[in-house]
Prior knowledge:
- 33% of the residues lie in helices and 16% in strands.
- The chain is an alpha+beta fold.
- α1 (9-21) packs across α4, α2 (97-110) packs antiparallel against α3 (115-128) and α9 (300-309) crosses α12 (349-361).
Amino acid sequence: MTAWKDVDKDTFLKNKETADARKTGGGSWDSWKPTASKAGVTAAKNVLRIMPPHQNMNDVFVEARMHFLPSKEIDAKTKRPIPIGINCFAQYGKDCEACNMVDRMYKAAKGEDDADTAKRLKSEAYDKSAKTRLYANIIDIQHPEKGVQKYAFGPEVEKKLRACFLDDEGEFRNISHPKNGRDVLMFVTKKPGEGDFNEYVQVKAKDTSSPIADMEWLDGINDLSEIAKEPSHVEMELALKGERPKTDGKAAEKAAAPVAAEKKVEKAAAPAAEKKAEAAAPAKSKRQPVTEEEEGGVWATAKAAIAKAGLDFTPVDITPEELEKVKKPACYTKETDISDSACQTCRVLIPCLEAKLMAEAA
């Protein structure tokens, strides 16, 4: 039987706070999709069961910041390129080729004299820009024969689904438990005048708990943590060319942690005495401490603001020399939000926040 685990209450509630503060919006993805009625018609009823997380998942939902790039493959129904979803490097604190491309497109649109061309470039840049996507294992109760399916959705739906894990008193309840969880009712219609976008009229957990109909469904729970793995630069290059990376997910996993592998080998080869000394020494923080001597120094104001906010993350360090070389995102110094997960993993967060704070103080 596939190993699954119960939802950790503290982790879930912490991620719910992040979800509530997150900006909504997103793109499409090849996964289960709720049935939606036409605009102006009674919302279509969907019944789904959120399955418990795989043992390798930290939460029932997995988050990824992804670019959706057009492939050379054309959808026979829509006649549009089938999108390639690939994780943005910025969330791993690295320079992202796709973000750089989007930035160039926005700049080209800004300098374009023809209004129609500028509008097209802006629209294309937005479509290719990184968007937050969430993933969950679900059972479509109206089509149980399909077994466990992956459900991809945006921040708006995430907030509604996470709210289902709270009872009327605001206390946590695990609706994904296989024995005493609850199905979720989702009433969906199309937004008027907005093409294929859905409006989630109501999303709520059923009033009564129930066991899942087939315990063998637990064998089909997917390890969705694989979705959040860092891709390789080769995969990104292929995606930018419109070619779908042909991997089974393991190549991306290997590309994500070469340094960790090297450290593991070095630690294994270290003498026992060195291991003991290493264990006794406190871990060195990557964040430079804010001290009185540092006051007025490089990015001290930004680091002090992060510390004052009390947020549980370590900003990516970057030297002034590296800052000159790295390509900044389009939002640089304009829309810094240290509570946003995308900003927290951005390589230029500290200088970006410093610039914004200094501008506000001026």
